[in-house]
Amino acid sequence: MMTKRNEYVPQTVTHPGVTLKEKLDELGMSQKEFAVRTGKPEQTIVKVIDSKSALTPDMAVKFESVLGIPAPFWLNRQQNYDEAVARLKRSELLAKAKDWVSRFPLKKMTDFGWLPEKRSKAEKAEALLSFFSMSSSKAWEDFYLSEKLKVSFRISLAHYGEPYAMSAWLRQGELQAMQLDAPPFDRKAFLAALDSIKKVMAEHPDDYFSQLQRLCLDAGVKVVHTPCLPKAPMHGSTRWLHDNTPLIQLSARYRQNDRYWFTFFHEAGHILLHGKKHISIESAQQESAKDKKEREADAFAVRWIFSEEEEQEVIRHGNLTEQDIIDFARKFGTHPAMIIGRFQHKKILPYSVGRQFMKPVHIEGYCD
């Protein structure tokens, strides 16, 4: 069946019917005669000449026989025309996506190098769609917001206050993960790696992240640092990628080691406890309402960084000196900041106490 076209097409790319008419005029051949010679209905030829129907491969071969112009010429003209029409439609779609574009923190994304510098809204829309590997803003909405789409790897942000910034943060983590090579996930190796990672946590050397990333990669787990975006106060996230590789994505929202390492072990807990279909998104919006799996991941992190039994031992000791905290941390194989941070979280200590034990976590970006 022929396809009718009513769209405006740029002057530089014309329908092959225009060339056909010019050739028939040059030969003095009527459309009716040409139809007879090609064995096609006259109305079909008229629609092609009027740019209302596409020229098919069968037509191209027959046109070659009648006019002596190779079939590839006609097919290339049709292909170029179809592409021009498609790009015109896309330009119109991009122009209409300005409201969608304005919802993203474009300046910060550009500053971080996630997006190229663009001037027009249409160019910005194109850059955003390329960033997300989406064909349209509607496709983005279907993927990130629609409750009807049932796909195991999909991250639903429909119930979050700022899904646009959050989706950008999550997507950047996926792009970072693509730059890393990892063997297949090995559960036993990852559990063993956690012992070594705890030692890194306890020492918190300058190259803590490179050590953490290497130990996880060896076990088939990808770990990335992604700077925060405005209105996306993310701690971290865990999900399984298309190739069945688990990804832990971390920020430095609080910029200090006690919360950073708690977040890492929390995300590690999700990998080991909750399977490939679970997607974890840790944000400030969730802190007041945690579901069962989040509480389980919290308990996992507590056991690794500073267990409740160890906590009770410290409390029974009574009044603590700075040296006591250091000694207990060494005994438990943890960092003094983990002890101080726990007591601050439980309001046993004010946040003004123990600040000397907190180590900064340096990563570009911030969270509002």
UniProtKB/TrEMBL annotation:
HTH cro/C1-type domain mapped to chain residues: 20-74
Superkingdom of source: Bacteria
GO MF term (any one): DNA binding
Family that this chain belongs to: Belongs to the short-chain fatty acyl-CoA assimilation regulator (ScfR) family.
Name of this protein: Plasmid maintenance system antidote protein, XRE family
Organism encoding this protein: Chlorobium phaeobacteroides (strain BS1)
